[in-house]
Amino acid sequence: WTGSLRGGAEWREYDNRGRKTAPYFEFALNHQASDRTFFRWYGRWGNDANELGTYTEHLAFRTGFTANHRFTKDFSGNAGVHYVHSEFSGSPISQDYDEDLLALSLGVNYQIWRNVGLGAPYYYTTIDSGNPFREYDRHRFTIGVNATF
After folding, report:
1. What confidence score (pLDDT) does residue 92 get?
2. What confidence tens digit (pLDDT) does each residue in 45-69 have?
3. pLDDT at site 16
4. If DSSP codes are grouped into helix, strand and coil, which group holds residue 133?
5. Which residue, 66, 80, 86, 123, shows the most beta carbons closer than 10 Å to its own?
């Protein structure tokens, strides 16, 4: 088992909106269950980058669990579940609201050569939001080649 824990404060300054201070915490716990299997659990609580321009604060709690397993020398798989609770506040023109995101992933990888592999991940994401225009369900499947140099 290995892990990390960090905490502190964040200071942000906005044009024409003043300064904001908020606490920040994050952790990670990793476990190498065998020479083929690895698990990771992580969490973070603090201000996130705000993708909504009228809100000055986007406080979020994130947590997730991932698992990776090597079936053979060249073939591996991974799975993950991730949750994010966000609170948007401080807009002069819109109401504050919360939203919850759930993301699931499942993928396989095949190593063709030492530095070239094929990957086929599937992702499912759903958002339940206090803002009905931000709610959605998404399924995404990709196939790709990756190279390491």
Report:
1. 82
2. 998 877 666 787 888 999 999 999 9
3. 67
4. helix
5. 86
